[in-house]
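Input record (one chain):
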Amino acid sequence: MPYYPDIAERISELAAALKTNKVGLGRLAGVSKTASGNWFSGKARPEREALANLKKYARVNDDWVINGKGEMFLSEARGNEQPDYLGDKDTQAMLKAWNTLTPRLRRNFIAIMESIVAVDAGARIDESGIPPRGGEAPGKTTLTSPDK
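The corresponding structure, as predicted from the sequence alone:
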């Protein structure tokens, strides 16, 4: 049975950088917790599809994961800053929540977000992010804050 200690070490570093664990990393990669657990233990290395998902969703450099070449992320931030794909604290919180969702719940979440965007398309939104009452674009429905 092959053993991949170098990959296991990099997988652990990656999970720490993404502030997740083997379950969260596995979900991000689209694999089971058993499969991702095998990466952490060095019993297996990520398959091509899992690496593609990590690259797509977290901008992970697959060459770094497998061979240790290059930077961990495709667009590494400078200094102690978070990589720019993580965005602000709200985005980080959403990513953390996303990592806990099953594939079915992820599809539902995406459908809900697409519905919200479709409803809000064309509406004027101020800095608060809440469209003003009466500010709807012609033929569009506007979401309003319940406290206004």
